[in-house]
Write a structure and sequence with these properties.
With 336 residues, the chain is an alpha/beta fold. The protein contains eleven helices and 17 strands. The chain folds into two domains: 4-174, Stage V sporulation protein AD (Peroxisomal Thiolase, Chain A, domain 1); 181-333, Peroxisomal Thiolase, Chain A, domain 1. 35% of the residues lie in helices and 22% in strands. Helix 3 links the parallel strand 5 and strand 6 (103-105).
């Protein structure tokens, strides 16, 4: 018998989030969530010789800290599901070199953390693993160079632009322990509404977020007020407004429980981040630093996290292609 509700929502019996770890840069430390991040550095290169090497270090250190905080050893971790924005998932691949853990490198753009949690939960519920490491990270400077323009050009950023979060977030999922539970995961579909502007990813990703959220509530039969917090990954302010409009067209309305990790991460007025934060680290750091702790303390009882990703490819974009997007919805419930 399939453990599913509806077409795209998997249901789990005993998947626990037993630890989280978060690393961030200077700008992240100065934002509203800065005080919750486990470790921040003043140096964007994190003591390394390049931004990419710094991203690898963020990834490695966040993963190691999550394992330590779970009070298990690396040999107790059955699988790692992890990814990033560098070409060929470079940060996760190089970051895992020293950890001696069976590794699945995954890519869902900025939705990668949601994908890692989804696959990790399936591995545990399917009894293929007892403990799983889920990590995602990104770096502002590396992402700008790869997907837009090198910072040295001083290219002007439009109001619709977001600021890629520098850092990494990591969780340990387990069949043991008493942490917050992952109860369901709704796997999203690739959605492309023809947006081509790489500086307006919120517009590109909002339809995918709407699709995942609508599918989740359709599959589960729940009302929008079932969750204390519904947090998209990195739509920013432009994308969030579009999301509200798209959901209203589907008959879904939210009161005060709909937010966005990218909006929560930075203060756009004092930090000049325009629409908010983005990147693989956006939902990963926001969840691991803040939302996870709120679930552990019972300040949030039920949460739906929807990491969002713009699946743009630099080659395809240069050839005039639009930006396909994806989003996955992960449901958490506190134990207290």
């Amino acid at each position: 018998m399939l453990k599913k509700k509806g077409r795209s929502t998997a249901v789990f019996d005993n998947v626990n989030v037993i630890s989280s770890a978060s690393f961030g840069g200077k700008k992240e430390s100065e934002g509203p969530l800065g005080k919750y991040i486990d470790f921040t550095t003043e140096d964007a290169m994190y003591g390394e010789k390049s931004w990419e090497k710094a991203e690898i270090k963020f990834f490695r250190e966040a993963s190691k800290l999550a394992i330590t905080k779970a009070d298990i050893s690396q040999s107790d971790v059955d699988y790692a599901f992890a990814g990033d924005l560098l070409n060929q998932c470079g940060a996760s691949a190089y970051g895992m070199r020293d950890l001696d853990i069976p590794f699945f490198g995954i890519y869902g753009a900025c939705s990668t953390f949601g994908e890692s949690l989804s696959l990790g939960a399936m591995a545990i519920d399917g009894k293929f693993a007892e403990n799983v490491l889920c990590t995602a990270g990104s770096h502002f400077c590396a992402a700008e160079k790869q997907f837009r323009f090198p910072l040295e050009l001083g290219t002007q950023r439009p109001p619709s632009a977001t600021w890629t979060v520098t850092g990494a977030g990591s969780c340990i999922l387990s069949s043991n322990g008493n942490g917050p539970r992952i109860t369901e995961v709704t796997t999203g579909k690739v959605v492309d509404m023809g947006v081509k502007d790489a500086a307006n990813m919120g517009a590109a990703m909002a339809p995918a977020a709407a699709e995942a959220i609508y599918s989740h509530f359709l599959d589960t039969g729940r009302k929008t007020n079932y969750y204390d917090c519904v947090a998209t990954g990195d739509l920013g302010e432009v994308g969030r407004e579009l999301l509200k409009h798209l959901l209203a067209e589907k008959g879904l309305y939210f009161e005060n429980n709909l937010t966005d990790c990218g909006i929560e991460m930075f203060d756009k007025e004092s930090q000049d981040t325009h629409c908010g934060g983005s990147g693989c680290a956006c939902s990963a750091v926001a969840f691991c630093a803040y939302f996870y702790k709120m679930l552990c303390e019972g300040k949030i009882k039920k949460m739906l996290l929807i990491p969002t990703g713009a699946l743009m490819n630099t080659t395809a974009s240069q050839q005039g292609e639009s930006i396909p997007s994806i989003a996955h919805a992960i449901a958490f419930e506190a134990r207290c």
